Amino acid sequence: MPAHTPMTAVYPGTFDPITFGHLDIITRATRLCDRLVVAVARNAGKSPMFSTGERVELVRAEIEPLIAQGADIEVRAFDSLLMHFCHDVGASIIVRGLRAVSDFEYEFQMAGMNAKIDPSIETVFLMASDRNQFISSRFVKEIGRLGGGIEKFVSARVAERLAHRFSRENDAAE
């Protein structure tokens, strides 16, 4: 029988901030591969609230329990074409999360383009679990900015970082 070739997957995203929905996809993705690279996109076009370094730091802190349980997860920032990044880290799978039908069309088109660029890299879609279907970083930031509770959507660590950022924004606006 041939030796097992370790399989690396990439889970790309902006993670601004990382939510329980992201963590659910990360946890489930670790069951599909030997090594998972969480790829934090620099993505200045989305005008992220947190710097790339802050987002990488938050993701690393949030996945520590998974690593302590033996998951092989690496967090890296990237600003290249995703397919080039996959080649750089030796990935053969891209993991994408789907929350609702509205996500599907965009993700379907992106998967098709990626397959044209390199058909050897497969895109795998994981449906958001029912308790996380409606969580988005954008909504979490909006709710938090307006003083709403976000504890159901992000960890206490992330909620604290958001609260600190919102208080700095409020101070600057005064």
Strand and helix layout:
Blueprint: E1 8-13, H1 20-29, E2 35-41, H2 52-68, E3 73-78, H3 82-89, E4 93-98, H4 101-117, E5 122-127, H5 137-145, H6 156-173
Parallel strand pairs: 1-2, 1-4, 2-3, 4-5
Structure in words:
This protein has 174 residues and is an alpha/beta fold. The chain has one domain (8-132): Rossmann fold. It is 45% helix and 18% strand. It contains 6 helices and 5 strands; from the N terminus they run βαβαβαβαβαα. It has helices at 20-29, 52-68, 82-89, 101-117, 137-145, 156-173; strands at residues 8-13, 35-41, 73-78, 93-98, 122-127. A 5-stranded parallel β-sheet has the order 3-2-1-4-5, with helices on both faces. Strand 1, helix 1 (20-29) and strand 2 (35-41) form a beta-alpha-beta unit. The model has no long low-confidence stretch (mean pLDDT 92).
Features:
Rossmann fold; 174 residues; 5-stranded parallel sheet; globular
Whole-number radius of gyration?
17 Å
* Strand arrangement in the largest pleated sheet: 3-2-1-4-5
**CATH architectural name:** 3-Layer(aba) Sandwich
CATH superfamily: HUPs
| CATH uppermost class | Alpha Beta
Please give the domain count. 1
